[in-house]
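User: Okay, second chain of the day. Same drill as before: sequence in, structure tokens out.
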Amino acid sequence: MTPDDIIESMKRAFRGEGGGRPRKYVGGLLPAFCDFLLEIGTPGTGYTSFNDFLADYPLITEGVSTLTVQYGSGQKTIRPAYNRMHAYYIFEQKRLGYPRSEPYATGKWADYRDWLDVLVTFTGEQLKEVRDRTKEFVLDELKPVVFDPSTVKTEPPIFRQLLQEFDFRDRARGEPTGAAFQAMVFGFIRADAPHLQVEARKVRTGSARLKGIGDIDAWEGDRLVISAEVKHFVVSIDDVATFEHFSHEVSQRGALGMIIAERFQEGVREAIEAKGLLALTTEDLLLIVRMWDPLKQRAALNAFQWVVVHKEQSPGLIDRVDDFLVKVGYKVKPAAEEADESGGETAEDAELAEEE
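Assistant: Same drill. Structure tokens below.
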């Protein structure tokens, strides 16, 4: 057999031609044979068969299933050479269709003694040729599985950006105080507890009048699970007494009660939590939001926008939110608005010009 003959034999076995199932592992076994013999130094020794080789390097069979021979004062196996080929195909070249069972592949070595009978007679250049041509064949036969980053649409952590960069203290003309802050808290709870039905109210709408408990309530059916009082200011120790009724109502229902504020004065957080409530600031919310994936962040923003547009219905606040989303690159301002702001011709201008 020549190098061409062995390569053709390997191809038939790899593809399963001539009967039997494909044995793709031979694409790693044959190069492993070549490296094994090159490392031992068989080229130039004058071997005429594999039995000649075994006369110098006796076969070890006890306790092993792979090709293992006595070598010096120890032993040598084809397993390291095969492992290198296995890693080359799968991890370096991304041929994930290459079989992964190294023990099985190297345990089948005896099925290819006819290859070894010829390989031990080859020169070093011939062994390298067989090894390299086999590798090229396998790479051609198996398609690489490579992840294409261009197929992924990345999304910004938009709700985190809202918490960090949106000016909740600013107000447009006619915009109710605290409206944006309360809408933000609704967005947070809605995204963090998607299994609950979350109620949103306009800012400064009495919860009792609407048969609610807090500014924002989250329900499982008829059971209150979460209730939040939203305070867009720095809560002082004098404010704690005003939470007594809220604490009582939440406790009776076995719900999780929250006081979410801009900040708390020293000692206030502890006083609130002594009433069985959670005291949270925007910084606390931010720590949680930082762990959210982009889809959850988008869900929170959507809930925030829903309150702004459909509950608060404040044109000034709606514009402020839109301007913010354009500024951070999340939203593109319509071309007509850009032209109008820059003094350019709008569609209405064009129509008037035609009439004139």
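Strands lie at 68-71, 74-77, 197-199, 216-220, 223-235, 256-264, 278-281.

User: Thanks, on to the next one.
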